[in-house]
Task: inverse folding
């Protein structure tokens, strides 16, 4: 901006018009004024181009940052979805195990309700209590025969 100030000072030197102090004894030359105006125009255009370039660079960086952030968010969402499905499967497995344990406990309680034990000498459908042989040890033939 030093060039613009220098050109402006040169173009608008002090001289007096009609007794009023406005610029000294030297009137500005049109060529000097045009040179000053051209310098201002070039400086403004240079600044405009620099600002547009800086704005575009900042915009590109922000877009890249936003895309990076969105990718991180998408990754976190994916991990959360996987975690939720794992938790749901674990809860379902725990519920199933609890339900199975309750059913097994109910079956054991129902089977043992009123049971006083096997009495010796009585026959059951697998053999005699005091007999050490089992149903499968007896030679009753084969179902294939």
Result:
């Amino acid at each position: 901006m030093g060039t613009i100030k220098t050109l402006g000072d040169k173009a608008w030197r002090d001289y007096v018009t009609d007794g009023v102090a406005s610029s000294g004894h030297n009137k500005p030359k049109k060529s000097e004024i045009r040179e000053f105006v051209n310098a201002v125009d070039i400086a403004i255009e240079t600044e405009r181009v620099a600002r547009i370039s800086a704005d575009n660079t900042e915009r590109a960086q922000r877009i890249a940052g936003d895309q990076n952030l969105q990718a991180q968010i998408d990754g976190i969402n994916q991990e959360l979805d996987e975690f939720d499905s794992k938790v749901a499967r674990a809860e379902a497995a725990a519920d199933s195990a609890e339900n199975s344990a309750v059913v097994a406990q109910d079956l054991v309680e129902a089977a043992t309700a009123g049971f006083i034990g096997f009495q010796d000498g009585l026959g059951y459908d697998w053999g005699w209590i005091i007999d050490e042989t089992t149903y499968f040890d007896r030679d009753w033939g084969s179902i294939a025969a």
The mean pLDDT is 77.
